[in-house]
Design brief:
By secondary structure, the chain is α/β, with parallel strands linked by helices. Among the domains are: about 120 residues; about 160 residues, no CATH class. It is built from 20 helices and 13 strands.
């Protein structure tokens, strides 16, 4: 369906249709094509016959021309692809936007939708595409316009400027989140800290240089005394501490030597005679063992007869071991064999020692005691003592080389004292130098850290100044926008009031009784006043007057918004009396917008009203619904034209 627009004042396109023919669907289709719809709602609206065939394809297409003469084509489709029995969840939405014959090169549906919203903002279309229900909503009660505040601000252009101000403040908050304000005082403090640490470093370095100079002097003095000592006494110099340690060691070694000497003497006295016979211990043990074994064999042989009888008796008593008692012949044979065994195993051993068991045990114990004693280590003890005595002699020799004469002894002590004094100072100054070097390292590290912090402060100072300027600019912009919003709201509300009142005077049957319409700048609540400046409550108006007021407000909004959008009106006259219908047909429709699309039944815009509108018509069409096919078609011309 095309809606041509004429330049000769013919701004109205009239679409006729009986109830149920699809007039409201035309306006709904425009909104769905532009802004989309839930898949389940689309599914419910699909023709049942087509759905039964498995056809779940739905397509909406809208082409319009912008103020900059760009032709925009919006196409939105839903399809269930190859589903045999499609459901609502199977519907997949696809959106295509074509500008001047070229598809808009955006990556996803959200970006396409943003493009559409920027071209025709959704929040304000309700004031351009409306039906009787929207009129009733605006005319509902005394405060209905308050509920439309956001939409009214969007239509007046205030909402978007307010959102811009909020966005500027949001950007400001984001900048402040990571913003650290670095002042000149912060930099001056850090610079003074750097100077303080630099002075400390210089003092430590000077102190280290003095310490190293003293250390070098003491090392030189010690080296001179050492060379003189060595040239005079022909030995390497030793400190008194070393001499003391040597003396301690000599005393300790002498004590060890004495202990070893006593141990050696004791071993000699107790075990030496026995130890000299140590090589005879093993043959002696063997002889004692042989004589002991022979003595046991002799005992067994002497008691063989008695042992044999006891063994034979034990075989049969208390119960026979062979299953049945032995007969006499078996007993005699066993006794004969046992006697031969006991008598035949005696080894003839020559008795040399002839010791009793007690004496033999004493001899064996004594030999074991000697073997476990340290007597066999006597040679090792003697060698160990000799090594200790040699070391004692060497220590005594080194301690006696301090000079023979008194003068040599005094010189020895003086040089020794000089070297020891220098060594003490060298140790002390070395510790001091090491400590100073560590302190210098710490101060140098601290200086590096301060320099890094200072450089960061310089950078952050420059950045913070830029950010501070940016934040200040955000505040200034936000304040300017808010101030502009106040002025714009005041200006727009004044214009809205004038335009609404202008149309209300044209449409109302009580126009001569109305003095003014006021709009609250904060709440958008509207107040109607009569000639006596009394408030006329909307709830006190007739139903027709309420609708006239609502239509006047909608027209005022369209005029105030300065958006060149077409107005689509669905069944606007159904609830109005003849007087108000005449006024709307004659005064509102021709002046509503540069393009007006009226969706009407034959009883709303009847033949008389059609004649009144005919001079302003750019075209007319009729919606015809076929109940058998459940299908609406469009034909050219109105009901009787």
């Amino acid at each position: 369906m095309e809606f041509p627009q004429s330049d000769n004042g013919k701004s109205i396109f009239l679409v006729g249709g009986m109830n149920g023919a699809g007039k409201t669907s035309v306006m709904e289709a425009v909104n769905i094509c532009l802004y989309g719809e839930r898949a389940d709602n689309i599914f419910k609206s699909i023709n049942h016959k087509e759905l039964a065939k498995g056809n779940a394809f739905v397509s909406f297409e809208l082409e319009f021309t912008t103020d900059s003469f760009e032709t925009i084509l919006v196409k939105r489709t839903w399809s269930a692809n190859a589903c045999e029995h499609p459901l609502a969840k199977d519907l997949v939405e696809k959106l295509t936007v074509v500008k001047d014959g070229k598809r808009v090169s955006v990556q996803n549906k959200e970006m396409w939708q943003d493009y559409i919203n920027s071209t025709i903002p959704k929040g304000i279309t309700q004031f351009f595409f409306f039906d009787g229900e929207k009129i009733q909503q605006v005319a509902a009660d005394d405060h209905s316009e308050v509920l439309l505040k956001d939409s009214l601000e969007a239509a007046l252009g205030i909402k978007y400027i307010s959102r811009l101000a909020d966005d500027v403040l949001y950007i400001k908050q984001e900048e402040r989140r990571n913003f650290v304000d670095v002042s000149d005082e912060d930099i001056e403090f850090k610079e003074s800290e750097l100077k303080k640490e630099s002075r400390k470093l210089k003092d430590k370095q000077d102190e280290l240089a003095d310490t190293q100079e003293q250390l070098a002097e003491y090392k030189r003095q010690k080296e001179e005394a050492s060379k003189r000592f060595k040239s005079i006494f022909s030995i390497d110099p030793e400190s008194s501490e070393v001499i003391k340690q040597k003396e301690k060691k000599r005393i300790s070694l002498s004590s060890q030597s004495s202990q070893l000497d006593s141990q050696i003497k004791q071993l000699i006295e107790q075990y030496l005679p026995w130890a000299m016979a140590g090589q005879l211990f093993e043959p002696l043990k063997q002889q004692i063992e042989k004589e002991h074994t022979a003595q046991q064999g002799k005992f067994i042989a002497e008691n063989a007869s008695e042992l044999t009888r006891q063994i034979v008796y034990t075989i049969d008593n208390p119960m026979p071991l062979t299953g049945s008692p032995l007969n006499e012949r078996q007993k005699e044979e066993i006794e004969r064999r046992l006697l031969a065994l006991f008598s035949g195993n005696q080894e003839q051993v020559e008795k040399i020692l002839n010791l009793s068991d007690r004496d033999a045990a004493r001899v064996l114990n004594k030999m074991e005691e000697i073997e476990k004693s340290d007597i066999l280590q006597l040679q090792d003890l003697i060698s160990q003592k000799q090594e200790i005595d040699d070391e004692i002699d060497n220590i005594q020799s080194s301690l006696q080389s301090r000079g023979n004469s008194r003068s040599e002894q005094e010189l020895f002590d003086d040089l020794q004292e000089t070297m020891e004094s220098c060594q003490i100072q060298i140790g002390r100054l070395s510790v001091t130098a090491n400590n100073l070097q560590e302190e210098i390292r710490i101060v140098e590290s601290r200086i590096k850290d301060i320099e890094i912090e200072l450089n960061k402060l310089y950078d952050r100072h420059n950045s913070s100044q830029e950010k501070k300027q940016f934040i200040d600019e955000c505040d200034n912009i936000a304040n300017m926008l808010n101030a502009y919003i106040i002025k714009l709201r005041k200006s727009k509300i004044q214009l809205l009031r004038d335009k609404t009142f202008e149309m209300y005077l044209r449409l109302s049957s009580k126009a001569d009784l109305i003095k003014s319409i006021d709009i609250d700048e904060k709440t958008y609540e509207m107040t109607i006043r009569d000639k006596n400046d009394n408030v006329i409550r909307k709830s006190g108006l007739s139903a027709g007057e309420k609708e006239v007021f609502a239509i006047s407000l909608l027209w005022g909004l369209a005029q105030t918004s300065q958006l060149n959008l077409p107005i689509i009106i669905d069944t606007p006259l159904s609830r109005l009396d003849s007087v108000h219908r005449d006024n709307i047909v004659r005064q509102y429709f021709p002046n509503a917008a540069s393009q007006v699309i009226i969706l009407s039944t034959d009883t709303e815009v009847d033949s008389n009203y059609f004649k009144n509108l005919e001079p302003y018509l750019s075209g007319a069409a009729r919606l015809i619904f076929n109940r058998n096919q459940q299908l609406t078609t469009v034909s050219e011309g109105y009901f009787w034209n």
